[in-house]
Amino acid sequence: MKFRAIMGALCAAGLMCGVATAQAAESVEVLHWWTSGGESKAVGVLKDDMQKQGYTWKDFAVAGGAGAAAMTALKTQVISGNAPSAAQIKGPLIQEWASQGVLVNIDSVAGDWKKNLPPEIDKIMHAEGHYVAAPFSVHRVNWLYINKAALDKAGGKVPTTWPEFFAVADKMKAAGIMPIAMGGQPWQDLTLWEDVVLSQGADFYKKALVDLDQKTLTSDKMVQVFDTVRKIQGYFDSGRTGRDWNLATAMVINGKAGMQFMGDWAKGEFANANKKSGSDYVCAAVPSTEKAYTFNVDSFVFFQQKGQKAATPGQLALAKTIMSPEFQEQFSLYKGSIPVRLGVSMDKFDDCAKKSYADEQTAIKSAGYVPSLAHGMAQPDAAAGAISDVVTKFMNSSQDSKSAVAALAKAAKTK
Ligand code: GAL
User: Fold this and answer.
1) Which domains does the chain have, with CATH numbers?
2) Which keywords has UniProt assigned to this entry (predicted)?
């Protein structure tokens, strides 16, 4: 009898199934919110890699940009004792989940991570001295996407200040183009608002949204932030209520609208529609934020399975694959992000990704590298939620800027 046949016979008799067979039996249930065209393509790379390694992928995708619905679904799953193998969790929420004692550590596959991650990101992947999360990529949030044909009709010059931005928006309007494609969900409101906060300077952003400094939160500059947001709103269409971010991106892709404020996951949609940066669309930093960079790093955490404190082979394989150079490259090419792992070649990336990479390096050196509040990197859930409520209320009512600022200062005290 040949070796394979012997092993097969033993295995069928319930004895000595080889490692490969044992792994083949493990399925990994993965909770995430990557459901748009570009997002699905990107997460599909991980699915394929895991299947090639013999694991069964059980997809638990919960639609809804920025993950609010996914986070609600996750809580229900964990409380009912059905925690997934892995879930898309990022920023301070990683430590919040770890403090519940429900995560496993993945130290055994993270031996070389420290030297291959920027220090501020390496820190976020830890809880109590152990790696508990695996990072995918770096998204920059402070981007403005512009349809190239619409820009040409509006004079062809990319706006770098707010007055220039409003001049372009006016010209688009005059040319019969809807100037701004805006979606209608709280996180999209907060994304735009934090862009405008950043346009007052990275230092202002940090004091306001990272330190929650009351003096900064109640300053005249913060009143100006709300005034600018109000002015930008004047260029929205009336159909934005409930609109998903990727539908707003589609409006810029097909020329129905001129511009969109969105993080570079929007670039995944342009790429998925075979649009090229430079000729079909332009990516630019949000006006007056050229030297700053709001970062948003997606990651997976891994939940204890059946009360076992140690990671399963499938969980370790997931973590290892996510940080492998080959995966890092292909995932970001589809996702619109840049690899988080240091030293991955940028040769295959487009101009926008190369700009993101260069701007990231500059921002890190000049203290302009700041965590995104709207994407869960800057504050624990409670404070971020309270601030988000203030912004959403302002953007969906006729509240004046001064009273919004007072509400903001109060919300920032939420623990
Ligand atoms: C962000 C997430 C991105 C992208 C986006 C829209 O919070 O980090 O990966 O998925 O939401 O869904």
Assistant:
1) 27-140+295-351 (3.40.190.10), 143-294+374-411 (3.40.190.10)
2) Signal, Transport
